[in-house]
User: Fold this.
Amino acid sequence: MSRELPLAALFQALADPTRLRTVVLLKTMELSVGELAQVLGQSQPRVSRHVRILSDAGLVGRRKEGSWVFLQLAETARSAPLFDLFAGWADGEAEALFAGDNARLEAVRIDRAEAARRYFEARASTWDSIRALHVPDDEVERAIEKMLDDKPLGALLDIGTGTGRMLELFAPRARSAVGIDRSSDMLRLARVKLEAAGICTASLRQGDMYALPLAASSADSIILHQVLHFAQQPGAAIAEAARVMKPDGRLLVIDFAQHERAELREQDAHLRLGFADDAMRGWFAAAGLKLDRIERLEGGELTVILWRATQPVAKRQRAAA
Assistant:
């Protein structure tokens, strides 16, 4: 009695021009089913059937982001050998087909960029008004870099990634990088910005700061940049960051010192009017972390503070045992 071999199923999944084109397209960028249908010139139901076959074979994964579902390749270790095979066996006709698909991807990029531009312009005045209240962004970014330059970034996690600025700055120096945000609109903006910057080492996921879609002890360097003042429960957000932090990792929180600009609650949905050092120290301690460095950036109506936390040596030793 014969049974189907997984390897045979894999090649059967690829034994169709549309599915082969799909895999090659997803090597370039993540795409929704609708975007994929646009590039392939086929209906969404037909493309969905092909995607299901690739998914069943373990070649393609799905990631939900708001009302969108994005498709992505299997992990690089499994997919990279396939592309070596394609490169060695592709003929002129196949190369021309792949090149045509890649050219049509430009329309997807233009659509994404236009949607991101509209979203950004609708909020630019708000962001600019807040920036005017504190030291320039480049000064804040230099301070962040100094806080992180004492050792390699390793696996970088940016919680509340927003426009992806932290990934734009630090993903090229990290072994891997993930940006997480609750807003699918912000993730689309970040995706466009990172692609325009030529950064392909970072991935973006939709998720909540209180329930990160990551395994425990999976991140070396974690950034919470101007995120906690939107949190109902800052301590719970810090505890969740601590859960995914490796024993020798570090957590960097950047936010405002306590202030009296109450209008930010209504105008910009700030739930917290800044933070005191003692409060931050208490949340770190409750999460099993130790506040080991503080930097204050004064020079405007709002003071920006950087708080860095690590795990105490005793806890790192227990985790390693």
